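Quick start: what a row looks like.
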Amino acid sequence: MKTVKLDIVSDVMCPWCYIGKRYLDEALELIRDIEVQACWRPYQLDATLPPDGKGRAQYLNEKFGGEDRAREIYQNIEQAGENVGIPFAFDRIERSPNTLNAHRVLKWATSLGFEIQNELAEVLFKAFFIDGKDLGDKQVLIECAKIAGMDHALVKELLSSDADIKEVQQEVANAHQMGVQGVPAFIINEKYMIGGAQPAHIIAGSIKQVAEQE
C-alpha cells in the first residue's frame, strides 16, 4: 500500500473549511487503497481578534461592511453547505472567536490519531456553525474535546497553561511561508497544494496522482 502525507490547513471559524472537511471525508473513502497520513494544521483568518473574541455584529460590520452584505455572502455558503449536509445557522453565532485555543486542542488531539483529531474538527465546526457556541470559551472547548473522545480533564489543565501557544503560532506562520493565503488548503507530501473546498473527486484524484508518481 502506498503512503501519502496530507496536511489539512484550516481555521475552525472558516465555513468553507467545514465544507472542505466533508469533501475530504468523502475523498478518503474513495482511495482506501492508499494509506493517507492526515493531520489538521492551524491557520487563523484573524489572529488580531482579542482573546475573548468580538461581538458578531461588530465583526461583520468591520469585515463585510454590515450584516446585510454578510448575509449575501453567506447565502452562497449555505447553499454549498446544503450540498454536503451542513445546515449552517449563522444567525445563532453571537461572537467571532480568536481560534488560537481551539487550534491548541486540535494539536493535542494529534497524539491520539487522525480519527480522533478529525472527529474533534467536526465537533468544533458543528459547535460554532450549527449550535452557535463560542469557540473562544475554554469550557466549550473542553466539552468539545470530551465529545470527541479526548481526556477532557487533561485538556482543561493544558488550557489553563501556556502549552503549545508558541508552537501553534509558529505553525500558522509556516503556513504563510509555504504560500497558504486562504483556507482550506490541502498539502500533499509537503510539496503539492490543493486550494479551497474542492469536490471529493479532485482531492482523491490529486492524492492518487501523487501516490503513483512517488
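That is the whole record. The CA atoms of residues 100 and 169 lie 8 Å apart. The mean pLDDT is 97.
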